[in-house]
Amino acid sequence: MAPAMVGTVEEKPKPLPLAIGIGGMVSGLREVYESGRTKELEWRQSQLKGLIRLLTDKEEEIFAVLHEDLGKNRGETFRDELGILVKSIKYTLQNLKKWMAPEKAESPLVAFPATAMVVPEPLGVVLIFSCWNLPLGLALEPLSGAIAAGNAVVLKPSELAPSTAAFLAANIPKYLDSRAVKVVLGGPIVGEELMEHRWDKVLFTGSERIGRIIMTKAAKTLSPVALELGSKCPCIVDWLDSKRDRQIAVNRIIGAKWSTCAGQACIAIDHIICEERFAPILIELLKSTLKRFMSKPGGMARILNEKHFERLSGYLDDNNVAASVVHGGDIDPKTLKIEPTILLNPPVDSDVMTEEIFGPILPIITVKKTEDCITYLKSKPKPLAIYAFTNNERLKRRIVEETSSGSVTFNDAVVQYALESIPFGGVGHSGFGQYHGKYSFELFSNKKAVFKRSFLIEFMFRYPPWDDSKIGTLRYVFSYNYILLFFNLLGLRR
Amino acid sequence: MAARGGVGVEADVAALRAQFAAGRTRGAEWRAAQLRGLLRMAAEAEAEVCRALHADLAKPYTESYVHEIALVKSSCRFALKNLKKWMKPQKVSASLMTFPSTAMVTAEPLGVVLVISAWNYPFSIAAGNAVVLKPSEVAPATSSLLAELLPQYVDSTCIKVVEGGVAETTALLEQKWDKIFYTGNGKIGRIVMASAAKHLTPVVLELGGKCPVVVDSNVDLHVTAKRIAAGKWGCNNGQACISPDFIITTKSFAPKLLEALGKVLEKFYGDEPLRSSDLSRIVNSNHFNRLKKLMDDENVSDKIVFGGQRDEHQLKIAPTIFMDVPLDSGIMKEEIFGPLLPIITVDKIHESFALINSMTKPLAAYLFTKDSKLQEQYEAGISAGGMLVNDTVVHLTNQYLPFGGVGESGIGAYHGSFSFEAFSHKKAVLVRGFAGEAAARYPPYSTAKLKILRGVLKGNLGSMIQAILGFPRGK
C-alpha cells in the first residue's frame, strides 16, 4: 500500500513514477475498502469525530493558513468555513444511524408475501477535487459526506491554496484513518493522472472548463461524476419603501459580495438588477455602508493571485466599463488588492457582464420595472443561485416558477450554504449533483433495491406455455384489480 | 413524422426548446393529458405493438404484453396518481441560524431531455420536460410503429420520436440536452457520457452486466427452477439487462437443479423448443453469431448438458445449459444476453460471494434460499443495482423500488418517484424576511463578534438571542 503521495506544488512533469505512485495508492485503497473496514458504523463515527477534533485542536493554524492563502480574516474564516463545518459534521453524526438504515418500500399485494426495501450502501472508492476559494470547506464538507456513506476517499485540494493544502496533507493522516482516507497534493498533471483511474464517484468543484475535462475523462471509465460549477449569480433588488429594509438589504448584499472571499465564491452575488429610480438610492447606501464595514484594514480577503488580479483589472481596462464606475476602481498590483468597485450599467456585451466575475466588482444593471428581470433571467444560463430582495409575493412566486437555478434565496444571500436541510448544487451550466446534510450522504451512496419473496403462493399464470386465459389473468394483476383477479382465479369470469 | 439527419435534428431540438421556454409542458393539466394519451395508446394499440415486437423478435404475445404494454400502462397510472404530490414543494426545516425563515425544496423540469431506448419515458413527461425519444434501431418494426403512433396520442410539439441508427444517434448526441437517458451497453454508454460532457449534461445510464443467481440447497426446488426459467428464457429469451446470466450452486446440488430446470423447460417449451411459439428468437444475425461463437468455444462446447439446438435460418437458439465452463471463457467474461445458461459449481455456497465480487457490479443479483442468515450475508456482501431473493426479474414491476445499476452496470436510478426525480431538478428555496438582523455577521470583525458567531454556529441559544438582538451594539 503506497503512503499518501505528496508531490511538489510547482509541477515538473514526472509521468512514470507519478503514475505508478497513484496507481499503487488506488489499488491499495480498493483493497482496504473490500476488507469492509469503512462500512462499519463505528469506523464512520470515529472518522467524523476525528474531523471535529482536527477542526477544534488546530483552529489557530487554520486561521493562519487561510490568511496566508487568501488574506481571510478570522471572522470570515470562522463564519464561512470552520464554524459551518463543525456544525455540519455534528449534524451528520446525529443522523448517521438513521440515514444508514434500510427504508421499507411498499410492495403490491400480488407479490404477497414479499418485503421490499431500499438499502443504502457505500459506492466504494471516491475522489474529491476541491476549489481554492473555500479551501477548507469545499474539501472537508464533501469528505465528511463520503466518509459518512462508508467510502474510502482521496482528496485532492487545490494547489492554488497551497498552505491549506499542505495543512490538510499534514493533518488528515493524524486525525483520520490514513489507510482509507488520503490527501494527494499537486496540480493539473496530478489531477489528470488521478482521472486515468476508475472511481466509484468523483465530485469536482471548480470551473466549467475543467468540469468538462473531468467528465470527459470520467466517461472513459464510467466513473459517475458530480460537478459544482460557477455561474453569474444575479441579485434582484426591488424598490423597498422602508429605510430599515433598505439598510438590511445592503448589509446582506455587502456580506454576500465583498465579505465572502472578496466576491471570489460560486455563490457570491455577481451583479445586481434593480429599477432605474432605485439605483441612486442603492448606490449611496452601498457606499456609506461599505465605508463602515471596511473601516478596519483586513476587512476583505485579497485576490488569489496575479493571474486573477490581471483578469479582474482587465475588466476595468475596457473604456466603456471604466466610464461606468460609480465607486472604487482603485487597484494595487503590489498587494493584489482591488477595492470594492461598483459599476452602473456597463455594456451588456463587455467581459465583466459575460464572464463570471469572481471578484470585488459589482455591476448594477437597471430596468424600468423590477418584473422585467424575469425575461432577463430566463435568457441567461442557469445560475447556481438567484437572489432577490423584495416584499412582493407575486414577484417571488414568478421567480420560483418561471426561472431555473440551483437555488433561490429571498431577502438574503449566501446563507443557504449553511442550511443542512436543503440541497446545495447547480443545474444546467452551474453543474449537477447536490450535497449538504443528507444529500451528501446520498451523493456518495448506492441505493440498492432489495426485494424478498417467499416460495409460498405460486402463480401459474406467470409461466409459459401461454394462452389467452393466462393473459386475461395477467391483465388484472397489472391493473391491481384484486377483486376481478380473485374471481378470475376462482374460475369465474365476466 | 420522424425526423432524420443532422439539420432536421437541430431544428427539432430548437423547436422543443422554444415550447419548453414558453412554459407549455409545465402545468399539471398538460402533463396529465399526455399521460392519459399514452395510456390510451397502450390500450388501443396493444395488438399492433405486439405484432411489431413479434416481427422484430418473434416475441410471444404475452411477453410483449407483460413487459412492454403493462409496464407502460402501470407507469402511466402510477405517475397520474402521484403527479400532484410529486409536483408539490416540500417544506423542510429551516435552521435557527437563519431564523426567521422558511425553506422548501421544489421539483422543476430540467428542460429538453433525450431518452434513448428506454421504456420509462412516461416519467420524463410527468416531470414536465419536452422529450425526444430515440427507440432502438435493433427492433425496427417497433421503432417505426412508435414513431407513427405517438404523435397521434400526445402533444407532438413537445414530444418527438427520432428514428435511426448510428448516424442519427450521433447527430442527436451533438445537441445540447438538459438530461440524457440511455439504456444499452457499456461501450455506447461511454460514448454517450463523453458527448454529454461537452455540454455538461447529466446522464442516466442503464447498462448491462452478468446478473448472477446463487442457488442454495435449502429451497423449494420446483418453484426455484420455474422462476429462474421464467426470468431467463421468458424474457426475450435471455436478451434483457436483468436476465439471470449464470448460476452458482454447490457441487452436490447441481445435478438436482439441472434436472429440475430440464423438466421445467420441457413443460414451458415442449420437447422441440425451436418450434415453440413461446420462445423469442435472437434479435439479429450479429447477435446470433456472437452467441454461436460463445457456444462453439472448444473449452465450452463439451460442457453442454441441456439443449444446444439452433436454427440459423430462423435465428433461434434453444435454452442451453452448461456445467462448469472455465471462468476465463468468453461466456463467463462477457454479458451473455441470450439463452445460454452456465452453471458454476462450488464446494460451499459461501464461495459464490468471492466469485461474484471478482466481477463487475451487476444490475441485479439473485439468491434462492430459505436461510435468512445467508440472505443477510448476501445483502451485506454483494453490491448490485438491485437484489432479489427467491425470484428473478419481478422487482422491475415494483414502482416503489429504485431501478438502476452501479459501477459498470450503470449510473442513476429510476422507476416510480425515482424516475420523476431523475427527470427533475430539486430547487432549494429559502425565504427570509428583513427581521432578525445580526450585526455579528458583518465586518469590521472583532473578538466580540467572533464569540457570538461561535455560539450561533454551535446552536447556543443565548448566542443566537444576542445575535438577533443585534449584539455587539454600536457596530
Please identify which CATH superfamily of the largest domain in chain A we are dealing with.
Answer: Aldehyde Dehydrogenase, Chain A, domain 1
Q: What's the gyration radius of chain A in Å?
A: 27 Å
Binned, the helix content of chain A reads 40-55%
Number of separate helices of chain B: 17
Oligomer: heterodimer
Molecular shape of chain A: globular
Task: Indicate the structural class of chain B.
Answer: alpha/beta
> Could you say what the CATH architecture of the largest domain in chain A is?
3-Layer(aba) Sandwich
Helix content of chain B: 40-55%
Strand order of the largest sheet of chain A: 10-13-14-9-8-15-16
Poorly predicted residue ranges of chain A:
1-10
- Poorly predicted regions of chain B are none
Topology (elements, then pairings):
The complex is a heterodimer of chains A (494) and B (475).
Chain A: H1 15-34, H2 41-57, H3 59-70, H4 74-100, E1 103-105, E2 114-122, E3 125-129, H5 137-148, E4 152-156, H6 162-175, E5 181-183, H7 188-194, E6 201-205, H8 208-221, E7 225-228, E8 234-237, H9 243-257, E9 271-275, H10 279-293, H11 306-317, H12 319-322, E10 325-327, E11 331-332, E12 337-338, E13 341-344, H13 351-354, E14 361-367, H14 373-379, E15 385-389, H15 393-402, E16 407-410, E17 431-432, H16 438-443, E18 445-453, H17 468-478, H18 482-489
Parallel strand pairs in A: 3-4, 3-6, 4-5, 6-7, 8-9, 8-15, 9-14, 13-14, 15-16
Antiparallel strand pairs in A: 1-2, 2-18, 7-17, 10-13, 11-12
Helix pairs in contact in A: 1-7, 2-4, 2-5, 3-4, 3-6, 4-5, 9-10, 17-18
Chain B: H1 6-21, H2 28-44, H3 46-57, H4 61-87, E1 90-92, E2 101-109, E3 112-116, H5 121-126, E4 130-134, H6 140-153, E5 159-161, H7 166-174, E6 179-183, H8 186-198, E7 203-206, E8 211-215, H9 221-233, E9 244-250, H10 254-269, H11 285-296, E10 304-306, E11 310-311, E12 316-317, E13 320-323, H12 330-333, E14 340-346, H13 351-357, E15 364-368, H14 372-381, E16 386-389, E17 403-404, E18 410-411, E19 413-414, H15 416-422, E20 424-432, H16 447-458, H17 461-468
Parallel strand pairs in B: 3-4, 3-6, 4-5, 6-7, 8-9, 8-15, 9-14, 13-14, 15-16
Antiparallel strand pairs in B: 1-2, 2-20, 7-18, 10-13, 11-12, 17-19
Helix pairs in contact in B: 2-4, 2-6, 3-4, 3-6, 9-10, 16-17
Family (chain B): Belongs to the aldehyde dehydrogenase family.
Active site (chain B): 206, 241
GO molecular function, one term (chain B): aldehyde dehydrogenase (NAD+) activity
